[in-house]
Amino acid sequence: MSTCRMRAVVVHGPGDVRIDERARPVPAEGEVLLALEWGGICGSDIAYWKNGASGTASLAHPLILGHEVAGRIAALGDGVTGLDEGQQVTVHPARLVGDGVLPDRIAGRTNLYPRVRYFGSAAFDPHTDGGFSEYRTVPAAQVRPLPDGVDTQQGALAEPLAVALHAVGRVPALRGRTVLVNGAGPIGSLVVAAAKHSGAGIVIAADLSATSLAVARAMGADETRDISRGESLPEDVEVVFEASGAPSALGPVLRSTARGGTLVQVGNLPGTAVSAALGDLVTREITWIGSYRFVEEIDDALRALRDGLDVTPVITHRFPLERAEEALVVAADPGSGSSKVMLRLGGGAAGGGMADAGASHIGTADAGMPGPGAAGVGASGPGTSGLGTSDSGTSNSGT
After folding, report:
1. How far is CA 28 from each of CA 8, 31, 33, 43, rounded to the nearest angstrom?
2. CB neighbours (10 Å) of residue 355?
3. Is the per-residue pLDDT at 204 higher than 50?
4. What is the pLDDT of residue 90?
5. What sections of the chain are H helices per DSSP?
6. How far apart are CA 381 and CA 336, in angstroms?
7. Which residue intervals of 245-374 are DSSP H helices?
8. pTM: predicted TM-score of the whole model, two decimal places
9. Kind of pairing between the strands at 315-320 and 340-344
10. Among 28, 156, 284, 291, which one has the highest count of C-beta atoms within 10 angstroms of its own C-beta?
């Protein structure tokens, strides 16, 4: 392959993802060229691949997937200062379109700005290509250097960890409080880790999948509830994070929330009419708040990783770039035992000490992690429903 070419994971329509060869970009003024090494598959990537759409954003043209990425700086455009070639970095995938001015009541909450270009999103035409490619140019302002001791595989987890930290930050004074996380997919398990990191007392994770609950325990959950085995949600929990996005879970989750308690909705709910039991929201005077993407919590995520927060147990599978479709299949399959599925994008380094793409553990469940197993109705995975389902496919970033 020519040194001026690169490979990219491109979705062309529903069920049609290809490894395309494209011209390697050249950084313009104020940009950097990244040699990307690792990318994490998100629910929006799965949605574009399966449905040709994610939320209200539909494909009009081929789109490079991916917004959870990290790599090294390969070149600097004119005028870029404070960054160096070879430096390990991740990316804040959001860029405001327009003047960035927000009403005073939401000043600083840039995640609520109405026009945002996000890596790997078809919300605008032309679309905003993502980072599942060997190289990508990025405005320098969106680049975040990785702290010492944080490798690029961990760096690719900073974006979903930022989503979790933002959700946890929606609740003041979490220290010492009991927390329930309903839905133990990738985002739910990261919420578990974020809650413990923020000082929560007892964190309970609930799901229909034993493999997802094993990941949640590895991420710091003190207790788990396997709904598929008839275990019930705890009662009177002060702070609840609903990470499944399943409308059928709302009634039981509201009932589990203490009177006067707080329910944070992290999992995306459908944009169409659904049936859900919501009576307890009123009679128990529950505060139900949403949590969407993040502001600058990606910086908090990097500091947490620097300080020793280990979120790598959320990674269950790794695939090389050329096996991206297989990786998407695994990430989308409730029976695969997957949580966070990673792509090794290239960039000339394995990152995180991982072996080359031909090694036996690339494209298989990690040693010591729960492997593929049978899944019951509503088990972990995208598009599933029911109490305790995990959040794969319902992440609230990247649409």
Report:
1. 20, 5, 9, 31
2. 12
3. yes
4. 98
5. 43-51, 152-155, 158-169, 186-197, 210-218, 250-256, 279-283, 297-306, 324-332
6. 9
7. 250-256, 279-283, 297-306, 324-332
8. 0.89
9. parallel
10. 156
